[in-house]
Amino acid sequence: MKIMIVDDDTHISEMLRENLSMEGYEVTAAYSGTEAKLLMDKERPDLILLDLMLPGMSGEELITQISGIPVIVLSAKADIADKVGLLRSGAADYMTKPFDMQELLARIDVQLRKAESATDNKILRYNDMSLDQDTHTVSCRGCKIRLTRTEYAILRILMLKKEQVVAKLTILENISEDTPDCTEDSLKIHIHNLRRKLKAAADKEYISAVWGIGFMLTDRPDS
User: Fold this and answer.
1) Alpha-carbon distances, residue 149 vs 135, 178, 184, 215 (angstroms)
2) Does residue 98 have a cis peptide bond before it, meaning omega lies within 30 degrees of 0?
3) Global pTM value
4) Given pLDDT bands bounded at 50, 70 and 90, which one contains residue 120?
5) Among the CATH numbers 3.30.530.20, 2.60.40.1180, 3.40.50.300, 1.10.10.10, which is that of 127-217?
6) Measured between alpha carbons, how far is 51 from 75 in angstroms, rounded to an integer?
């Protein structure tokens, strides 16, 4: 796990780096908001420890430009309005300096577990396959499968309802944004192409047709 420290106080920064490194974290440090932004653009950390009073871009400004990364604010500002404002702006947690290192480590662990859980919820899995709902990518046994937007949309529906029969009408309604003019006949073509790609990657059938109703995701052959 990678943690970025953003604090212009070198003493605090080095103390944090030493303690976090001892816990097994990979640590980077920035000493201004601008430097932190440049580092984030190059390599995304898993969590950020952020001071507010920074040279150049302030911590308050920086936090509005951070998305999808938990931020724990470490600040000498103890006013409740400051804490509430930062939490509403996107901070995951707020600790007032001076802080207890063991408490900080516990809060870091909580935020990283929350972030990991949120990431897991965005990834659908079935046997050897995984579908990332953020990046719209599908992998099987570690290899990416190239799908069209419509094929991806169909597979996503089937993975959300794995081993359940999904009616043709339900599939058509859900993929209407990707293929507005899709009909039952063209749906069969999309399903055929999707099955072929999945079989080539996994060397087995993943989609079964249920006559007169629809399709289902299964590793069993068609009945």
Assistant:
1) 12, 6, 17, 18
2) yes
3) 0.58
4) low
5) 1.10.10.10
6) 5
